[in-house]
Specification:
single chain; 188 residues; alpha+beta; 7-stranded mixed beta sheet; 7 strands; 34% helix; globular
Length: 188
Amino acid sequence: MVNTNAHRTYRLSVNDWLALEQFYMRWSDQPDWPSESRAREAWDRLVQTWQVGAWLGDAAVAVAMDGSRPVGFAAVTLAMDEPTHGRAMEVGTFVAPTHRGTDVNRELKRWSAREAARLGAQWLAACIPVANVRACRAFVKLFPNAMAYETPHHSDVPWRDYLKRRAFAAGEPVRLYIVRLDGDSHPT
């Protein structure tokens, strides 16, 4: 099946909690929806942390809209802020299966890099389950200079503690991608 929506431009609605709720209601039953936020209570807690983060100025969520329908989202949240590494923001995305391969992911990731930089980050991080080969491949395609670390293989890397926390939270092995936010790292 050829997707005729390829190379469209989608409107991004930032911190649109109603559109995000509509997206959750439509797509959270998908098998690849993150299991840690599938339950209603867990999703509500996650959204509340994003809302507080947006209010504090260290988080934002963009919802990709196809007309009036939400078709994907990206959440940018504070990963770490310390003297050794500087500030890192983590991006998490989910694109509706009906809109994969239509540049929604590219637009959301472009936004996430710009938003992370606007929020003062030197780094953009993404923790992707190792088993999610499609998402890993998509991230590297957009950020070819990303450094990748995987649990438990990297015990002596600067991002080790963060990687361990994220793998524990995910309940499965994850690959941590780190992108330096400078002029050469933004996706084109």
